[in-house]
Amino acid sequence: MLFDSQYFTDPHPVHARLREAGPAHLVTTPDGKPAWIVTGEADVRRLLADPRLSVNKRHGNQGYAGFSLPPALDANLLNIDAEDHSRLRRLVAKVFTARRVEDMRARVQQIADELVDRLDGPEVDLAVAYADPLPLTVVGDLLGVPEADRRPFSAWTTAMLSPAYPAQVAESVVNIHRFLVDLVAARRAEPGTDLLSALITARDEDDRLSEDELVSLAFLLLFAGAENSAHLISTGVLELLRRPALLAELRAGQVELPAVVEELLRLEHANQFAIRRFPLEDLRIGEVTIPAGDTVLLDLASANRDPNRFERPEELDPARADKAHLAFGHGPHFCLGAALARMEGQIGIGTLLRRLPDLALAVPVAELRWRPSFRSHSLAALPVRI
């Protein structure tokens, strides 16, 4: 069985075995549905930008299809193709600009410092007390989410990443949908300076975002943005604590934090696979033919450790010249939030290293708990001594 409890703890040996065995493999996902996994970096990069692969579920033939979401959450940038995707991305890009992200830098630093100030030692769960709330607060500020509503949303998104409990997943989806519909209505009634208010008023000539599109975009930013950045911070800290020599060099200024964060993104990004895709025609990968309509999972975790692309791919090497990893995807669906995620990772990790010189794991690495998801590799808790 590929996706067992050991996979949840350390999925990389499974990705390596698949990559070494061939370019594409038909597997059974934990929900019992079939999917093709494509493993090599060159194939994954090429197919991420290939218009013969659709992200729209209507092109699938009953294989693995990912989350079951209501239409108002499903119509987001990750799930639409071609002209519809270009239209939506163009409207979002008008207001989710590099300037807006950079203007948040001081606020992100303030949030990080305030969270460190609240850490109540000598031992804390750094995931719960710091890594999770930092990006959730940032994205909450970005979208104008009232502070009192942010913690319930975090619990709902955590439940969505635990497919072993389908009733909780379904309940969380309903709660998230209701919450975001109310949030869009509130921002429409009383616009602010936040991104959601800007998205509501964004126009491209006579075009503007529909209600479902606004709700789905808010969902994407809160769910994908907050969860992935939280993972980058918590797993990034873990990987540095496991490498004391590199950690000492980083604290001494002998290596640059942005370079370390890029390597962490390559080595340990949360998303093991890009969002599922469906070939619009039979697809040839090496000696394998994937039939039209079958589910295809492009293996980002495998691609980012492919020795045919990266020298010494298992090493965390801040001096690595090739930084063209696929953590944020490639092609038309490249992550719009990449700059924000990098900022959160750099400030989130850097603040901890600067403020907590005695930071150390409170349990052996083997005792750490990971969330039971085959799509996302992320810590359930990170006990540390401060």
UniProtKB/TrEMBL annotation:
<dbReference type="InterPro" id="IPR002397">
    <property type="entry name" value="Cyt_P450_B"/>
</dbReference>
<dbReference type="InterPro" id="IPR036396">
    <property type="entry name" value="Cyt_P450_sf"/>
</dbReference>
<keyword id="KW-0479">Metal-binding</keyword>
<dbReference type="GO" id="GO:0005506">
    <property type="term" value="F:iron ion binding"/>
</dbReference>
<dbReference type="GO" id="GO:0004497">
    <property type="term" value="F:monooxygenase activity"/>
</dbReference>
<keyword id="KW-0560">Oxidoreductase</keyword>
<dbReference type="GO" id="GO:0020037">
    <property type="term" value="F:heme binding"/>
</dbReference>
<keyword id="KW-0349">Heme</keyword>
<protein>
    <recommendedName>
        <fullName>Cytochrome P450</fullName>
    </recommendedName>
</protein>
<dbReference type="Pfam" id="PF00067">
    <property type="entry name" value="p450"/>
</dbReference>
<comment type="similarity">
    <text>Belongs to the cytochrome P450 family.</text>
</comment>
<dbReference type="InterPro" id="IPR001128">
    <property type="entry name" value="Cyt_P450"/>
</dbReference>
<keyword id="KW-0408">Iron</keyword>
<keyword id="KW-0503">Monooxygenase</keyword>
<dbReference type="GO" id="GO:0016705">
    <property type="term" value="F:oxidoreductase activity, acting on paired donors, with incorporation or reduction of molecular oxygen"/>
</dbReference>
<dbReference type="InterPro" id="IPR017972">
    <property type="entry name" value="Cyt_P450_CS"/>
</dbReference>
